[in-house]
Amino acid sequence: PVLVESLVVFAIVLSVHGVVWDRFSWCALALALQAFYVQFKWDWLLQGGGAVFQFRGAANSGLLPASMVIPLLGIVMKERCRAAGIVYFERFGVVVASTGMLLALFLSVLAVGITKPVPTNTCILTGMAGSVIIYTMKHSLAVSEVIEVLEVLLIFVYLSMILLYLLPRCFTPGEALLVLGGVSFVLNQLIKRSLNVVEGKGDPIDFFLLVAVVGVVLLGLFFTVLFIFMDSGTWISSMFFHMMTAVLGLGVIMPWLYRLIHRNPLLWLLQFLFQTQTRLYLLVYWTFLAASACGVVFYQNAKRSSESKKHQASTITRKYFHFIVVATYVPGLIYDRQLLYVAAVLCLAVFIFLEYVRYFRIKPFGQTLRHLLSLFLDERDSGPLILTHIYLLLGMSLPVWLFPRSCAPKGTLSGAGALVPYSGVLAVGVGDTIASVFGSTMGEIKWPGTKKTFEGTMTAIFAQIIAVALILIFDSSVNLNSSYAWILASVSLVSLLEAYTTQIDNLLLPLYLQIMFMA
């Protein structure tokens, strides 16, 4: 399975660079080759228990697929913005690609360094790849951009040491690279923009995303350290938790956002949410869907209580939430993407806050949340945190958040790029859901070395093609310009990756489909 997963990733890398070829292509290929070799060292360390931190079990390291995501995103963003003539975001894409390569290279060097005996051939290959990447960065980045890349690397190192120690078995090395690398980049961007505020410059919804992500992460770090010294399950601790959340929210996060957008954040948010009648209808509709999701949770728990044996939610039951999320995102993508952008940020903040309440057993809802959500656990939730629902939200939202609006003059990209905001809906909401449902109910021919079925994968590809046709019918802004063969190849490769990867597919698949569409 690891070899097939690697072949699929290599096919995606070669496909992207067959369309977008520049000096960074050599770096990406060198990075992919060395990551392929180093991931076996990580797998050996994970199996032998010598990986320094405790990573998620029942999965390989995932170094190769994770290592290529951020560099490829940066490269395709750079090319799209260069074609649109937006120099600022073209340089931003170069910084993203360079940062992703350096973070992946650091994780590779870490694995090689702690492997005993030292793998000579892998060391040589990693050194050669590092030399190519550093040489290219030297001739491509300005001094300020080099400093920015090194800042992100420094934040990543410290954040990794803290969070991987505090949260054992929550991530594989690849997932840690994606999640912590993304948080490190967001934190650095927020610091950079806070120090260089220009009134009237920058979209408030972008600042809202940066502040919300950094705010909830800092909130979690603060309470994690605090509850080392006190019992989090008492009423006094719970009251202190709610009080300090209000203090940090109103005393730090709100003023920080005010400095960036130069207006009252709460008034801006209320005005934004209720600006048009369409937004009001969407908010009412989403409220109904949220109530439906809560109803599914309560119904399944009532069903568990009425049965004598231990009841666990089936795969099909868990996929109900995928259907609800698709029903949430598609109207937002068609009618008001900016509202969907902000609503997704709010939902992410609420999800993470509720996970803090559950994890720390904050009264009065902490223990109740533990009981309700334990029904939906699977083998990927082996650590102290339950992250699968947060990954589902991220997988659907990241294509919306990462869509290069400034490089799309009419609000949409040409060709397959017009489907970029729909990457999460197609890969996770449609493809992964249909593959799981049909594979578990009617699948008979299993892919070698996996539990996934051939029927599930083929049905997923077919369902995504039908979904693309429906998007063309209902969303007038999408114009594919006869790029149907590329869309079919993109969907097929990502569906094959879903069949073989042991990483969190809710996070990985939308990003790869977005990369293919943007290329």
Automatic annotation (TrEMBL):
<keyword id="KW-0812">Transmembrane</keyword>
<dbReference type="InterPro" id="IPR032974">
    <property type="entry name" value="Polypren_kinase"/>
</dbReference>
<dbReference type="GO" id="GO:0005789">
    <property type="term" value="C:endoplasmic reticulum membrane"/>
</dbReference>
<protein>
    <recommendedName>
        <fullName>dolichol kinase</fullName>
        <ecNumber>2.7.1.108</ecNumber>
    </recommendedName>
</protein>
<dbReference type="GO" id="GO:0043048">
    <property type="term" value="P:dolichyl monophosphate biosynthetic process"/>
</dbReference>
<feature type="transmembrane region" description="Helical">
    <location>
        <begin position="454"/>
        <end position="474"/>
    </location>
</feature>
<comment type="similarity">
    <text>Belongs to the polyprenol kinase family.</text>
</comment>
<feature type="transmembrane region" description="Helical">
    <location>
        <begin position="57"/>
        <end position="76"/>
    </location>
</feature>
<feature type="transmembrane region" description="Helical">
    <location>
        <begin position="149"/>
        <end position="167"/>
    </location>
</feature>
<feature type="transmembrane region" description="Helical">
    <location>
        <begin position="486"/>
        <end position="513"/>
    </location>
</feature>
<feature type="transmembrane region" description="Helical">
    <location>
        <begin position="278"/>
        <end position="299"/>
    </location>
</feature>
<keyword id="KW-0472">Membrane</keyword>
<keyword id="KW-0418">Kinase</keyword>
<keyword id="KW-0256">Endoplasmic reticulum</keyword>
<dbReference type="GO" id="GO:0004168">
    <property type="term" value="F:dolichol kinase activity"/>
</dbReference>
<keyword id="KW-0808">Transferase</keyword>
<feature type="transmembrane region" description="Helical">
    <location>
        <begin position="422"/>
        <end position="442"/>
    </location>
</feature>
<feature type="transmembrane region" description="Helical">
    <location>
        <begin position="207"/>
        <end position="228"/>
    </location>
</feature>
<feature type="transmembrane region" description="Helical">
    <location>
        <begin position="7"/>
        <end position="37"/>
    </location>
</feature>
<feature type="transmembrane region" description="Helical">
    <location>
        <begin position="88"/>
        <end position="112"/>
    </location>
</feature>
<keyword id="KW-1133">Transmembrane helix</keyword>
<feature type="transmembrane region" description="Helical">
    <location>
        <begin position="382"/>
        <end position="402"/>
    </location>
</feature>
<feature type="transmembrane region" description="Helical">
    <location>
        <begin position="240"/>
        <end position="258"/>
    </location>
</feature>
<feature type="transmembrane region" description="Helical">
    <location>
        <begin position="341"/>
        <end position="361"/>
    </location>
</feature>
<feature type="transmembrane region" description="Helical">
    <location>
        <begin position="320"/>
        <end position="335"/>
    </location>
</feature>
